[in-house]
């Protein structure tokens, strides 16, 4: 097995980004809009997937369990942390947790999303993904939950959703 296809731990591609909420990110109620945070989530998921797969092209297939827990406002610091929770043959799932960090460094969770990405080759065809090496019980639980989400997606697809 080549190094590119060797198993990689979640820490290999784990990525943290910090964003400052700008007026252009707000909705009519003065809160961070769903569209703005969705764009940030999608971008971070792509970065995590590209880092894990050591490739330059990925595409979003699905976003599962996008949960808005609390809002964010202008000048809030958003801390977004993404890491791989599951790998298939050509796809992988990335968990993105979003927090608002106050000036003392304390964080409160405002959003969680699971994003399914597919790795593409130079011909835009699905390409093999290096496996994820599960190292902890928490990672095992994430892996098993990802399999359940995958099964639900497949059932929904069969049902025409």
Question: What do you see in this structure?
Answer:
There is one protein chain. This protein has 161 residues and is of the alpha+beta class. 29% of the residues lie in helices and 35% in strands. The chain has a 5-stranded antiparallel β-sheet with strand order 2-4-5-6-3. The protein has a two-stranded parallel ribbon with strand order 1-7. A hairpin with a 5-residue loop joins strand 5 and strand 6. The termini are far apart. The mean pLDDT is 94.
Topology:
Layout: E1 8-9, H1 10-13, E2 15-20, H2 34-53, E3 58-68, E4 77-87, E5 91-101, E6 107-119, E7 132-133, H3 137-158
Parallel strand pairs: 1-7
Antiparallel strand pairs: 2-4, 3-6, 4-5, 5-6
**Share in helix:** 25-40%
Structural class: alpha+beta
Average the pLDDT over all residues and give the rounded result: 94
Distance between the termini: 38 Å
**What sort of overall outline do the alpha carbons produce when their principal axes are compared?**
globular
Strand/helix succession:
EHEHEEEEEH
Separate helix tally: 3
Main sheet: strands, sense, barrel:
5 strands, antiparallel
Beta-strand content: 25-35%
Spatial sequence of strands, sheet with the most strands = 2-4-5-6-3
Question: Which radius of gyration do the C-alpha atoms yield?
Answer: 16 Å
Number of strands: 7
Low-confidence segments, ≥5 residues, pLDDT <50? none
Describe the structure concisely:
By secondary structure, this protein is α+β, with helices and mostly antiparallel strands. Helices cover 29% and strands 35% of the residues.
């Amino acid at each position: 097995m080549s190094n590119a296809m060797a198993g990689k731990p979640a820490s290999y591609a784990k990525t943290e980004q910090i964003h400052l909420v700008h007026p252009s990110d707000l909705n009519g109620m003065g809160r961070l809009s769903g569209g703005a945070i969705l764009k940030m989530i999608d971008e971070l998921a792509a970065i995590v997937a590209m880092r894990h797969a050591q490739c330059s092209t990925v595409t979003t297939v699905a976003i599962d369990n996008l949960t808005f827990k609390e809002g964010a406002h202008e000048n809030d610091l958003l801390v977004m942390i993404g890491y791989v929770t599951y790998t298939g043959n050509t796809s992988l799932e990335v968990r993105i947790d979003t927090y608002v960090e106050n000036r003392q460094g304390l964080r409160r969770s405002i959003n969680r999303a699971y994003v399914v990405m597919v790795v593409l080759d130079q011909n835009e065809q699905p390409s093999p993904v290096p496996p994820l090496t599960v190292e902890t019980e928490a990672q095992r639980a994430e892996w098993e939950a990802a399999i359940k989400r995958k099964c639900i997606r497949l059932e929904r697809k069969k049902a025409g959703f």
